[in-house]
Amino acid sequence: MKLDDRFARTLRSSPAVGALLLSACNAGPAYRPPSPSDLKIPAEFQSSSTITAEQEMIDLARWWESFEDPVLTELVDRAFTGNLDIGVAAARLRQARATLRATRGQALPTASASASVSRSIGNDSSSIVDPSTGQTVSRGGDVTVYRGGFDVAWEADLFGGIRRSIEAARASAEAGEASLRFTQASIASEVGLNYIEARLAQIRLRIARENLGSQDETLELVGWRRQAGLVSSLDFEQARQLRAQTAATVPTIENDYATAVNHIAVLLGEAPGAVTALIDPPASIPLAPGVGAPIPAQVIERRPDVASAERSLAAESARIGVQTAQLYPALRLSGAFAGSATSVGDVIGNGIGSLLAGITAPIFEGGQIRAAILGQRAATDAAYDTYRQAVLTALEEAENAIKGRDVAERREADLAVSYEAANNAARYARLQYRSGLIDFQALLDAERTLLSSQDATAAARAARASAAIQLYKALGGGWQAAPMPAPGPYEGGGEPHRSEKRD
Fold first, then answer.
1. Quick check: is 124 in a domain?
2. How many domains does one find in the chain?
């Protein structure tokens, strides 16, 4: 008779066991995701009126391509494959999926087998009887005895403790995947923001150096006029002071550029300086089209950090059932087989098997199980509040990003007018100073205003580009098209660490 048949016959012959199987259920609450009303999601964003319906929609999945900057696109794509934070998140996801597979194995029977061979050598010519087979063998020859056996065990998941464990492990794995996707979206936006900072530094350097050239001409002109006795040394010293102030900004801007470029390299999983040659050629700050304002529920559905918090809540809820199932009886079935013979073919025929069914139930645990249930319910409450906080944070970031994009566009437009006026004023001031129509203080003020206006205009364009990146991230873009990272060297079959080779 097969061992499976023995299990079935045992179950049929035991009314108590049959009743327990009929009453099998899942302990703990049945999880249902909170509704939008429970989460207090509004019907629309307050700032939605600032986004016109005519604005072009972009593909949020690969928003960086809308900037039409091949260098930015290359950097983001390289970050997806090389960033170490993404690698960490991917490894944790693989770990969570391995835990899920191991948890699923708890619902299956376990089996183990053993085998051995023993041989005795003697010169005695007398005979002995093999106790396992009843055969008479000579003591004078070599005697070989083969032994084999296996054990099988299975715990019936009567009250769903194992099923709840699988449910929790599955939700944790899904939360890990959402965390990976959020990391990918965050890294894409971080690369974009630092790229904008690098391009802004390049433009600010150009502005500073152009103004240095203009101020050198002014300083030379003032020097001639001083030698001619037309102006005092005060004008010359003021011109020299302005030129030195402008020159002093250059090292700071160069440091800002190096900081942004080096951080991009680290975001790509490379050493500082690895992408300097790629970014060094000067380029303008790229801009991207706007997006139509979505409804808040769409943002919540797209954002992986919100999905991660919701899946963590589902996992904690399932663990309530895992703890609750400890209150109820557990059914464990086990079987064993062992045999030995002087011939391999006779081991099974001469074997002896056994099958046992046992029920255990908690009687007195000192309140430990109910305390664990209360503790898990508290953990689920904390996960629920964490989920709600993630939703509110997502709504806040989207609201602020929509408003920030609108403000950045309007500010850039006003500063463009300001720069045009400051440039005209500086040009007129130089002409009038050469003609002796104004004093040097008026020229000095005009040149200072021009430098400040140029710098502010460049910063406004960068702020507009950065606001767009922050908006795309806040709306849940940047992860949908990201590739799944490859396994690391330990999981992917690469060379082991040196310490492992020595073991």
1. no
2. 1
Whether 181 and 482 have beta carbons less than 8 Å apart is answered as yes
Question: Which pLDDT tens digit goes with each residue over 68-109?
Answer: 999 999 999 999 999 999 999 999 999 898 988 988 887 878
What burial class does residue 445 get, using C-beta atoms within 10 Å of its C-beta: 0-12 exposed, 13-18 middle, 19+ buried? middle
Instruction: Give the mean pLDDT of the chain.
Output: 81
Using CB atoms within 10 Å of the CB of residue 389, give its burial: 0 to 12 exposed, 13 to 18 middle, 19+ buried: exposed
pLDDT for res 337: 76
Domain of residue 165, CATH code:
1.20.1600.10
Pair 198, 260: CB distance under 8 Å: yes
Return the higher-pLDDT residue of 248 and 226. Answer: 248
Spatial contact of 328 and 360, defined as CB atoms under 8 Å apart:
no
What pLDDT, in 10s, does the model give residues 275-303? Answer: 999 999 999 999 887 776 667 777 787 88
Contacts of 479 (CB under 8 A, 6+ apart): 61, 181, 182, 184, 185, 188, 304
Q: Within a domain: residue 394? A: yes
Domain-embedded: residue 23: no
Residue 8 lies in a domain: no
Domain of residue 468 covers 30-110+159-329+368-488
| Phi/psi-derived region of residue 302, left when phi > 0, alpha when psi is between -120 and 50, beta in every other case | alpha
